[in-house]
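Homework help board

Subject: predicted structure for assignment chain

Our instructor gave us this sequence and asked us to write out the predicted structure in token form, then describe one feature. I got the tokens but I'm not sure how to describe them. Can anyone check?
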Amino acid sequence: MASSINDGAICFFSTGKDSVVMLDLIQRFFKRPDHEYIYLYTFKGLWIRETVLRHYSEKYRIEFLQYPWYYNQNNTKKVKHGDIEKFIRAKHNKIWMFYGYRKTESLERRGMMAHIDKGIDWKYKKLYPIADWSARDVLAYIKRNRLVLPPDYRSGFRDINSFKGEALLWLYNNYRGDYEIIKAQYPGIEGELIRAKQ
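My token output:
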């Protein structure tokens, strides 16, 4: 694979606040027609995700390619993120990847990015535009540029993908269609809902 950053990069977009800021920075300072924008879904077709993807697709005139976290034939075997990266790189013939990760998110992230040079991981060919930003920096940027966040973030849930506790109850009460989509793929969520209601 002879691709370089000059041939465009793969941009992973999660719809979360850090990812939204990263995407806006790419459009302002790193935009290229040959970037590939990737959304990895846990459950396909959720309105709370699709509405954000549609908004930024129209805003920046880009296309989001969607892949499941599982890409084996039966869609049942969970794979490591490194395996997903390898798959995406080979499929799109690109080496460099954009991520909206920050060092201050966790000790794990700080350790993972300890060796990078001004947001660039030369060894693993990854780009982190907001690596040194704080959560306050991110929120200020979102407010200043009026960027759209998914409804779960606006309601105080950082990661609705866990689908447990108050976050699951919030989804059930406010986005019943999304709850039904999840239940069709993961019937065990009904038990989670019963526990959340108790």
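Reply (TA_rk): Your tokens look well-formed. For the description, you could write something like this. The first helix runs from residue 17 to 30. That's the kind of observation they're looking for.
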